[in-house]
Amino acid sequence: MKQGGGKRKGGQYERDVCRVLSLWWTQDKKKPHDAIFWLTSQSGGRATTRAKQKLKTPNSHGDVGYLDIKGKPFIDKVLLELKRGYTKDISILDFLDKGKGEPLLLKWWNKSEKERELAGRKYILIIFRRDSHKSCIFMKGSLFGKMHDTFGTFDNNVLHVRYKNLKLVVVEFEKLLDWCHPDFFMR
Questions:
Q1: What is the mean pLDDT of the chain?
Q2: 64 in Cβ contact with 18 (< 8 Å)
């Protein structure tokens, strides 16, 4: 994984996201727990390698799996990818005027889509943070629409990306967690 500042910075970010997701997932418990989710082996590489041999590796696709069985319903539905750095490589304008090749966000999406299919999961969430910026979350517009139908208006900035037949949304990660209750993924 390419990261601004080396692997340590990205690794710490990934661990922090797992803790934040764990606390979000267990927010209604008497004592929320910060170790429900954790990083998968080789950022999902083990599952991908085994899939080429027609072998299944549950709870191992994407960057995040569950340590505690309480996290299984979320991971069974959502493929999570985590990205850190890329400050100069992410430009939403690349969807309009990229000369050759795909915009980086689209590359991430397409790779995640293949992984999602291998894992048999319903949704993709790509959580990323550019250096010196806030964490964002990238998802399909249809998923965001279902959240909107459930929780009402999202009173924060929303970036809609429509590229060919693909509709995607980018929002601030922590604001989405404040708005979307974990029960949404239990349905």
A1: 87
A2: yes
